[in-house]
Design brief:
The complex is a heterodimer.
Chain A: H1 2-11, E1 25-31, E2 41-44, E3 49-51, E4 58-64, E5 67-74, E6 83-87, E7 95-99, E8 110-112, E9 122-123, H2 130-134, H3 137-157, H4 161-178, H5 180-199
Parallel strand pairs in A: 1-8
Antiparallel strand pairs in A: 1-4, 2-3, 2-5, 5-6, 6-7
Chain B: H1 2-11, H2 14-22, H3 25-49, E1 53-54, E2 63-65, E3 71-79, E4 82-89, E5 93-98, E6 104-109, E7 115-122, E8 125-132, E9 135-142, E10 147-154, E11 165-169, E12 172-177, E13 180-185, E14 191-196, E15 205-210, E16 216-224, E17 230-238, E18 244-253, E19 262-263, E20 269-274, E21 279-284, E22 291-294, E23 305-306, E24 314-318, E25 324-330, E26 334-341, E27 347-353, E28 359-366, E29 372-380, E30 390-396, H4 399-402, E31 405-414, E32 420-428, E33 433-437, E34 447-449, E35 456-463, H5 482-498, E36 517-523, E37 527-532, E38 538-543, E39 555-562, E40 569-575, E41 579-585, E42 592-599, E43 602-607, E44 619-623, E45 628-631, H6 635-644, E46 649-654, E47 659-668, E48 671-681, E49 688-693, E50 704-706, E51 712-714, E52 721-728, E53 737-744, E54 750-757, E55 759-767, E56 771-778, E57 783-792, H7 801-807, E58 830-838, E59 842-847, E60 858-863, E61 868-872, H8 891-896, E62 925-930, E63 937-942, E64 946-951, H9 966-996
The chains are: A alpha+beta, B mainly beta.
Protein name (chain B): ER membrane protein complex subunit 1
Subcellular location (chain B): Endoplasmic reticulum membrane
GO biological process, one term (chain B): protein folding in endoplasmic reticulum
């Protein structure tokens, strides 16, 4: 059935003799989409010829002079492929069509399908997420501090008394290093010791 | 950028390619495609960098209004739930307008060069006949607005193409055009037959057609005779096969018929007017001759012409002085006058057919006090008897606010009590479309559509004052009361979420960011509008009435806004038939402050860049006799002019002469006159010339461009530069070509010129501070192309570190002025250029415009399909390096932020489409205006539809995002406060406990 319809539509590519006796051809096709086609136009070379699709999506570009054309579907809802057309000047209805994006030949009437039927015009807004709040560097710092505050004393409590002593000494050392007054004291002590040594 | 680089590094890396080389060629191919895809993805990612919208911003930061244009044809029709006015307009739009509210139910926008000359409805279909040069478009639509079928007839592209006629005959549609009669199948549109009536006679023109029955058609027309007269003929054609059954001459007329033949609606008579002899030619269908009835006896005025109204045995005439007459055909045949209206009274005739084959005639005149329309009607029965003229219904109207009702369509309906009621659909001189009803039913259904907005020619933005204008209360946001504001905001959001709508009109004072502005629009309908930039509502409108009595409303020449803050003024220049006028309007309420009328014709008008003591800038107006006029013409402006006149230059493009002429101003005997200084003549045969200017109020932030290697290019920023684009169409021996020039507007010197052969216009140009962007169609490559040229000066200033140290900072004033238009050119410009293929045809281009010019630029492209896309200027940069692989870019180029060159900009990335789902039909120009925020620019697209949105080329760096999470901020603060207090209390308690231990 379908090939028959195709054949019939090929036969219907009738000619119209122009005033200047140039052989002109009609270009037929069909836009296959579920979206309404009210504002859609099919144009050649950006507006040299144009066609309005019918309700079923079929369109006819009338009386096209021989030459090479770029067929473009002007639509704001979907993205359509572009078709390169060669209209022969030898006989009416002698046409050739290639899809520009993959160089595939297409039969007539041009069966066109949108490349992207419903493109997304909007960026997605990222909503509020707990993970993003928690992954905040401040939050991480706070979390670590909290961890030290809560977990470390417990670890201390469970420690061996001897180890604790050792650690306290070590910590004391570190604390001394960090505390400037104690550091001064230490240095003075060291100085005193040195002087003692010299005297000796 | 990060995303792009990342993608390329991951997939475009060398290991992938090496493995490919070792394996199969197919794999190599795949890799190549993949590489291409990755590159495209990278590009897309980069394009996506520019601000895509969020879905919830729709209708908040943008608006789109749909228009149809000035209505020329209208038919009343009720279909299903709607009662429609099916209309055709001057802007070649067909539409169905709801009669109750005036909303557009459906709309079909045809080609801009197509003129709708025939419009008929038959049952559930609508036939439109459109004439474009050399073509007749025959289209059948359903009354719901979808195309049933279309067909075309070809003809030669003559100057005056006669109007076609059409008739529904049985199930087929017969169209007669010039000498051809063609029949189409009513449902499929297949051509059934075509008949050429011309034969050897060359100028046969069919002007009327009748279908007395479904079997036959009679066409009437004229052809010239050997003696120089005109012979009228009729021809009977069989409707099923298109055979010529009869052909007969009806007699000769001495002179050409200037008005077409009209068939009366009862199919009894064919009427025409011999305008020169003032005779009515009347033919009774079925007879073999014309009767000529002298009209002088009825005193109908000079040179009457036939109005194209089809009435039962009644014809309508209009005389040269504007008077009209309705004549009834009586047996004899002779005519008697039914109604006569003098030309001195503005009036319109209308008709409505009734169900029984009769008609209602209506004469609409203006009332004595000129603030109402008076409607008089008379009913014509099917058998030709005419009832009494009755009713003097008054309809609300204002001649000073709308002008005259140029087009009137009558809709008669039977009321419940059996009497006839009338509605009028009126297309006024200000292009507005109104539905009016007689006083008895006033307010029941009357609406107005401001269709002058379909022909906006200029738009100027004025910031609203920060104080309320009309005593409106203002809410002052304050940090001290932040909490109520936050609560109010939350409540507002909640209420908006629950009941999505019911917000009042936007306030008429400025917001903190300066996005609320008045858009002053000058239209083709002699009307100026002040639109609110927040929602497109009309704040005020001003119709410029005719400058002289018995004149048409003037054409609006230009609109200039001067002054700042709360005291700006809008100067409107209007050009009448023999005089011009300056109207000073208040930009916030549209009140006329003053008006002066001067005889003459405006050649050029501009606002001078100097300020008077009151903060306003004077206008400079040059009339066609080259006299210079100032507005206001005071001694102060004269003094200002004396000081500056030697620096004033202007240029005018004259399409009729195909010339661009430059003028300067000289002083001659105490008066200023303009003198032509230079001219540029273009090829006359159909060359299309257009100009582009850099907006004089646009800021240029930096005079240099710093490259990646820290060297500097000096921008050629010439405020006098004009871009001239010339598209030369295909000639017999030559290919089409386009030429784009940069011309100094003061001296007329061509600074830069490029010619692209075998390329076609129309050229869309955009002139930036030191660059020129233009779009055209490449015939050889079969693609739309965009070229960019950037101009730099060949500077000799040494600006390296050593010389800066030795000689101190550069004194730019000492340097020979590179931008003096008249200094001999020391060296040519240093121009960098690149071209790219573009995925779709471009209708208009614009450039984002910010307050200080610091923000990077966005290029706005309105496509022919009606989308508004945003492009980063970095994609249109002639310094894009030619590298096969983004990785091979030099470090310096990468630091400069350049994007590798690609021959194509690809299609339009949906994320860059600002207009999202709106289709902005027939876009013509894009106007951008700054806001208080440096990051943001308002974008206004002007076409048949109007669309306004915002762009922020570098994202909104100077304000918090609209989706900024205030809840998280408040939450975190509250948490910190609680934590501080809580932990303090806890520590105190612990301390106390320790002390007690």
């Amino acid at each position: 059935m379908a090939p028959l319809a195709l054949l019939l539509s090929l036969l219907s590519l009738h000619t119209l003799s122009a005033a200047s006796d140039v052989i002109v051809s009609n270009i037929e096709g069909r836009l296959n989409t579920d979206l309404p086609l009210d504002g859609v136009r099919v144009v050649l070379n950006g507006g040299a010829y144009s066609a309005i699709p019918r309700q079923d999506g079929s369109f006819v570009v009338h009386s096209v002079r021989p030459g090479a054309y770029l067929l473009e579907v002007q639509d704001v809802q979907s993205i359509w492929p572009m078709v390169r057309l060669d209209v022969s000047g030898k006989a009416a209805g002698k046409l050739r069509a290639l899809l520009t994006h993959n160089r595939q030949p297409v039969p007539f009437p041009l069966p066109l399908e949108p490349l992207v039927a419903k493109p997304v015009f909007f960026e997605k807004r990222e909503g509020f997420q707990w993970s993003s709040l928690l992954m905040n560097p401040m939050a991480i710092m706070m979390g670590v501090t909290l961890l030290i505050m809560v977990v470390f004393p417990k670890m201390m409590a469970n420690m061996d008394p001897e180890q604790l002593k050792e650690m306290q000494q070590m910590q004391g050392g570190i604390a001394d290093m960090l505390n400037p007054e104690k550091l001064k004291e230490k240095q003075q002590q060291q100085l005193k010791e040195k002087r003692k040594d010299r005297r000796e | 950028m990060w995303g792009a680089g990342h993608l390329v590094r991951r997939f475009g890396g060398s290991p992938f390619r090496r493995s490919a080389r070792r394996t199969h060629p197919q794999f190599l191919l795949l890799t190549c495609t993949l590489m291409g895809l990755v590159q495209r993805l990278a590009l897309l990612a980069l394009m996506g960098l520019s601000n895509a919208m969020f879905e919830d911003q729709v209708d908040k930061i943008d608006w789109c209004t749909q228009h149809i244009g000035k209505v020329t044809h209208s038919i009343f029709h009720s279909t299903g739930p709607h009662r429609l006015a099916l209309v055709a307009t001057e802007q070649s739009v067909l539409a169905g307008v709801d009669l109750r509210h005036g909303t557009i139910i459906w709309r079909q926008v045809l080609r801009a060069d197509e003129k709708i000359s025939g419009f008929q409805q038959h049952g559930k279909v609508l036939l439109s006949l459109g004439i474009a040069p050399g073509r007749l478009f025959i289209r059948l639509w359903s009354t719901q607005g979808s195309l049933v079928w279309d067909a075309q007839l070809l003809g030669s592209a003559e100057e005056s193409i006669p109007a076609p006629t059409a008739a529904f005959v049985g199930s087929s549609i017969v169209v007669a055009w010039k000498s051809t009669v063609v029949a189409f199948h009513g449902t499929t549109g297949a051509q059934l037959w075509a008949l050429e009536l011309g034969g050897e006679a060359s100028d046969v023109a069919i002007s009327a057609m009748l279908a007395p029955s479904e079997a036959e058609i009679i066409v009437y027309g004229s052809s010239s005779t050997a003696k120089g007269g005109v012979s009228l003929f009729s021809s009977k054609i069989s409707a099923d096969k298109g055979e010529r059954l009869e052909f007969g001459s009806l007699g000769e007329v001495s002179k050409n018929l200037t008005s077409p033949l009209i068939a009366t609606s009862d199919k009894k008579f064919i009427a025409g007017v011999d305008t020169h002899a003032s005779k009515l030619l009347l033919h009774r269908v079925g007879t073999k001759s014309f009767h000529s009835i002298p009209l002088t006896a009825h005193q109908l005025g000079e040179a009457p012409a036939m109005l194209s109204m089809s009435l039962p045995s009644v014809v309508a005439l209009r005389s040269a002085d504007g008077g009209s007459a309705l004549l009834k055909i009586v047996t004899g045949p002779n005519v008697e006058v039914l109604k006569k209206v003098e030309g001195s009274v503005p009036h319109s005739l209308a008709q409505a057919s009734t169900k029984d084959g009769g008609a209602v005639l209506a004469v609409v005149t203006v009332s004595g006090d000129r603030d109402a329309l008076v409607l008089e009607t008379a009913q014509v029965q099917g058998d030709g008897t005419v009832d009494e003229w009755k009713g003097e219904d008054r309809l609300p109207w204002s001649m000073s606010l709308q002008g005259w009702a140029a087009g009137v369509w009558l809709n008669s309906y039977t009321r419940k009590d059996g009497t006839l009621g009338h509605r009028l659909l009126v297309s006024a001189e200000d292009h507005s479309l109104r539905l009016l009803q007689a006083a008895k039913e006033a307010g029941k259904s009357s609406w107005v559509r401001e269709e002058a907005l379909a022909s906006v020619q200029q738009a100027e933005f004025v910031s609203l004052p920060s104080l309320a204008v009309d005593g409106e209360k203002m809410e002052v946001p304050s940090f001290a009361f932040a909490l109520p504001a936050v609560i109010a905001g939350i409540q507002k959001r909640l209420s908006a979420a629950s009941s999505a709508s019911t917000t009042g009109p936007p306030p008429k004072y400025a917001d903190a960011y300066g996005t609320r502005q008045v858009v002053l629009t000058r239209t083709g309908g002699s009307k100026v509008f002040g639109l609110h930039s927040s929602d497109g509502s009309v704040i005020w409108s001003y119709f410029v009435p005719p400058l002289a009595a018995s004149d048409v409303p003037p054409a609006l020449h230009s609109l200039h806004v001067s002054g700042h803050g709360a005291q700006p003024q809008a100067f409107l220049l209007a050009q009448g038939a023999s005089s011009w006028s300056v109207l000073v309007l208040h930009p916030f309420n549209g009140k006329l402050l003053s008006q002066t009328i001067t005889p003459g014709t405006i050649l050029h008008a501009t606002r001078l860049p100097y300020q008077l003591r009151n903060g306003l800038s004077p206008l400079l107006i040059v009339s066609t006799d080259l006299k210079v006029h100032m507005y206001p013409s005071t001694s102060e402006t004269n003094g200002l002019m004396l000081e500056h006149y030697s620096n004033l230059y202007f240029h005018v493009l004259k399409p009729a002469e195909a010339a661009l002429r430059g003028y300067s101003i000289v002083r001659e005997a105490d008066a200023f006159v303009a003198v032509e200084r230079w001219a540029m003549i273009f090829p006359e045969d159909g060359a299309q010339v257009n100009l582009a200017h850099f907006p004089f109020d646009a800021a240029v932030h930096s005079p240099v461009r710093v490259l990646g290697d820290r060297s500097v290019l000096y921008k050629y920023v010439n405020r006098n530069a004009v871009a001239v684009g010339v598209a030369i169409p295909e000639q017999e021996s030559e290919e089409p070509s386009i030429q784009v020039m940069l011309v100094d507007g003061a001296s007329g010197r061509v600074l830069h010129s490029v010619k692209h052969s075998s390329c076609e216009g129309p050229i869309n140009m955009l002139l930036g501070e030191n660059w020129l962007l233009y779009e055209y169609w490449s015939k050889n490559l079969m693609q739309h192309q965009i070229s960019i040229s950037e101009f730099y000066t060949n500077s000799t200033v040494s600006d390296d570190l050593l010389s800066l140290v030795l000689s101190g900072p550069i004194d730019y004033t000492q340097r020979a002025n590179m931008f003096d238009s008249f200094s001999p050119a020391t060296s040519d410009l240093y121009a960098l250029s690149q071209s790219y293929a573009f995925g779709t045809s471009v209708a208009a281009m614009g450039l984002s415009h910010t307050a200080m010019g610091i923000t990077p630029k966005n290029i706005l492209v309105a496509t022919s399909a009606g989308q508004l896309a945003v492009f980063d200027k970095r994609l249109l940069d002639p310094r894009r390096p030619h590298v096969a692989n983004p990785q091979k870019m030099t470090q310096a180029d990468r630091e400069e932020g350049l994007v590798p060159y690609m021959p194509s900009l690809g299609g339009i990335n949906p994320l860059t489409v600002l207009s999202h789902r709106h289709a902005i039909k027939q876009p013509r120009m894009i106007v951008c205006a700054p806001t208080m925020l440096e990051s943001t620019s308002l974008v206004f697209v002007i076409g048949l539809d109007l669309f306004l949105s915002r762009v922020a080329p570098a994202k909104e760096f100077d304000r918090l995002n609209e989706d900024f999470n205030f809840v998280a901020l408040v939450g975190a603060t509250v948490f910190l406060v609680v934590a501080t207090v809580g932990s303090g209390w806890f520590a105190n308690r612990k301390d106390l406990a320790r002390q007690w231990r």
